[in-house]
Amino acid sequence: xxxxxxxxxxxxxxxxxxxxxxxxxxxxxxxxxxxxxxxxxxxxxxxxxxxxxxxxxxxxxxxxxxxxxxxxxxxxxxxxxxxxxxxxxxxxxxxxxxxxxxxxxxxxxxxxxxxxxxxxxxxxxxxxxxxxxxxxxxxxxxxxxxxxxxxxxxxxxxxxxxxxxxxxxxxxxxxxxxxxxxxxxxxxxxxxxxxxxxxxxxxxxxxxxxxxxxxxxxxxxxxxxxxxxxxxxxxxxxxxxxxxxxxxx
Length: 249
Description:
The protein contains five helices and twelve strands. The termini are far apart. α1 crosses α5 (115-132). A hairpin with a 5-residue loop joins β7 and β8 (195-198). Helix content is 19%, strand content 31%. The chain has helices spanning 11-21, 28-35, 39-43, 109-113, 115-132, and strands at residues 23-26, 65-75, 78-81, 139-149, 169-178, 180-182, 185-189, 195-198, 205-210, 214-218, 221-223, 229-239. The strands form three sheets. A seven-stranded antiparallel β-sheet has the order 1-9-5-12-4-2-3. A three-stranded antiparallel β-sheet has the order 8-7-10, with no helix packed on it. The chain has a two-stranded antiparallel ribbon with strand order 6-11. By secondary structure, the protein is an alpha+beta fold. It is globular and about 45 Å long.
């Protein structure tokens, strides 16, 4: 089975590449360099994707997604977790699940307390400020731990289809792929003809997207053996306020 690998960039080229193309991919080694931690420190977070509760809000009736969700604010070069809150998206950006409060279970305290966790979110906020040009007063960051499994034969990483998230930046970390096929990432210009497809497969590699400029999706996964699944960490970064501060038009 042939996998089309993404073209990766160096940490020094990350900002310029996102400004030019609207997205860029870092290898795991470069993610560690970018965050100022080690690959081993990132890998130590991976077991936190085991034993997550099911996503009970799937409108397609599926049982293939497990997730945890927490929210943070990065302000004055400091990261702080905010009181647990619902995840909310406008129907303008998520026609399937938009317009509803989704109260997922919060992330584990041990995950949030890890130095690597703070380093990842700090690196994201600082890069977002560089790409944005004019740093906002604060970055509002939502963190989503996802496990897409193949219990029912197929799992859908993006059941809403090709979409934008209604934020400024989206960071998708490939935490683990186990005994699956599929899960191809597709990125398209929001207002142009160009697109690219590839499969994120290296644990702790990163796809960074300018959500204002590109649309993204991931294709369904199928099992190659019992227990096949795909684990990702998705961080969304929005200037000044969370999305529920601006209801659908």
